[in-house]
Amino acid sequence: MSAFEGTADYYARFRPAYPATLIEKLAGLAGLRPDRDRVLDLGAGTGHVAVPIAVHALEVVAVEPDDGMVRALQARAPSNVRVLQTRVEGMADLGTFALATAGRSIHWFASDELFARLATITPRVALLGDLPRQSEAQAAVLDLAREFRTTESAQARDRRPFVELLAASPFSEVETISVETERTWTVDELIGLAYSTSFASVHRLGERRAEFEAAARARLEPFYREVARVDAVVGTRPLS
Hints:
The protein is of the alpha/beta class. Helix content is 35%, strand content 22%.
């Protein structure tokens, strides 16, 4: 069973989108041209990176293993996004790319092996994300959900910071693009966010789902307004 089984609808609706300005700056840094360049998006989920960056590319190849995520991505993907349902470790020879991306997903992969393979097909990798711990709202609901889950989630493989991951990889010339964005959260949206995760999905909460929702409504603020910093950490292969 996929670690994200049953989360796709919640993922598409409640995971925060990447700011358009961040995607535009990343495309500019990578020198993407829509008449020639291909992008490889790894652990594509429901398309939070693949869909907006497709405007800047000739083709985006979006790799995602989960059935529900694939269906959700296919439903919203523009014509130049090709969705491949496979694990990153099982990718076929897909040709070369101007850029490879991973949004909130790199920690699920055997990153050292992945970076070695990516070094043969792309000069540049971008890891996108923000830290839920920097958000009072997200931290509160996710901590609460951990109290109620009835089964343990699979352990992610690598939690090193993005800068550290890339500095130790073939993509060792590292720079960071940062954008601040305002976010608002209602309790219902925060509950949906919890259900989008591998450790607090409806499946993980099991029979305690209703109890969790009641606790969230009782213990969380009814509304949050926050400013979040979202990063794209970009690693480039040295020319030498």
